[in-house]
Amino acid sequence: MASIELKSVRKSFQTLEVIHGIDLKIEDGTFTVLVGPSGCGKSTLLRMVAGLEEVSDGTIEIDGTRCDHLMPAARGMAMVFQSYALYPHMSVEENLRFGLENQRLTKTEIAERVGRAADILQISHLLKRRPHQLSGGQSQRVAIGRAIVKEPKAFLFDEPLSNLDAELRVKMRGELIALHRRLGSTMVYVTHDQVEAMTMADKIVVLRDGHIEQVGTPVELYTRPANQFVAGFLGAPQMNFLDARVDESGKNANLRIGDTCLELPAGVMLAAGTEIVIGIRPEHIELDDRGPLRVKVHQAEVLGAETILHTEIDAQVPLTISLRGISSLTDGTEVSIAFRPSDLHLFDQEGRGIR
C-alpha cells in the first residue's frame, strides 16, 4: 500500500498546457476516483502517476519519496487499461505469469501468486483458456489479475469498465469494491461516469480543463458542491438551475423567480437586488397543491421505480422532477410544486457556491 502526492504538477504537449499546477494527496489504502468530462485531463494525470507520461513541471511522490524521474517498472504501480491488452496466443495462466517471469521470482512463488489472484477473482477454472474464449467480464478479471500478481504499491484503473454492457458494469463495480476491501490497497480509478464515481469512491476528485474543481467524499460533493459545475456534474437526473434575484435585504430576504417569491435558506445573508443562480435536485421537488411554483408537464418518463417529469415554468424555464414510483401525470398537465429552502443550493454569477 502507498500514499501518492502530486505537488504543483503540470503537463504540456508542445505549447498546449493540459494540466495546470495540480496539488493532490491520495491517502494510503483509499479508493480515489478521478472524474470529469472527456478531455479534462484525468487519464493524463493517471498516466503521469504511472510513469507513462512525463511531468512537465512539479513532482510526484510515493510514500514521501519522489518518483517522477523513475521508469514505470520502478514505481511499484500496476495499471489496468480500458482495453484488456491480453496476449491472444497465451492462455489465461500464461498471461498472469508473463509479467512475473522477469522479476527473478522462483517458479513456486509465481505459481502461488497466480493461484492466489485466480482465487480472489474466481477465474481458476479459466486458467487454460485463451483470450478469444473469454467473455468481456472474464477478460476484465484477467486484466485485473495481471495487476494483482505484481503485488503493487497501488492499482491504477483507466476507465476499465467502459467496454462492458450496462448490466455487467454494475456487477464489476461491485466486484472492484469487494476487491478493494479484501486487499486494502491504494486504488486510483479514472472514469467519466459519475455513477461509478458516486458508488465506488472513498474520495472523489472532480476535474475540469486540467484543474481540480473539488475533492471530497461522495456525500460531501453531492450535498455541498463547491460550484455550479460540480453540482451539475454529479447527480442523475442533473440538478436544476434557475436564475433568481434577492427581493429584499435582512434575515427575511426572499428569492424571486419571475413573479414568484421563495424563502432563502436559513442563515444566508445577501444584499437586495443580488442576482444569483439557485440549484435544486429533481428528487427534492414535491407535488403540492399549495406550492408556490406552477409548472407544465411536457414529457413524463415512467421508469418503474421512479418517474422523471420534464416540465417548464412560465413555458420557458425547464425544470426536471423525479417522483418515486409510477406517476399518472401526462403531457400538458399543470401542477404546483414545492421544496424546502434547506434543499436549495445557491451560486453567484460566476458559478461559485454561496454558503
What does this structure look like?
With 355 residues, this protein is an alpha+beta fold. The chain has two domains: 4-233, P-loop containing nucleotide triphosphate hydrolases (Rossmann fold), CATH 3.40.50; 240-354, Nucleic acid-binding proteins (OB fold (Dihydrolipoamide Acetyltransferase, E2P), Beta Barrel), CATH 2.40.50. It has eight helices and 21 strands. β12 and β13 form a beta hairpin. α2 (92-98) runs parallel beside α4 and α3 crosses α4. The longest helix is centred in the middle third of the chain and has 18 residues, at 166-183. The two termini are 37 Å apart.
The number of strands is: 21
Write out the strand line-up for the largest beta sheet, numbering strands in chain order: 6-7-8-3-9-10
Overall shape: elongated
* Average pLDDT for all residues: 92
Which architecture of the largest domain per CATH? 3-Layer(aba) Sandwich
Please supply descriptive tags for the structure shown above:
355 residues; alpha+beta; 2 domains; 34% strand; Rossmann fold; six-stranded antiparallel β-sheet; elongated; OB fold (Dihydrolipoamide Acetyltransferase, E2P)
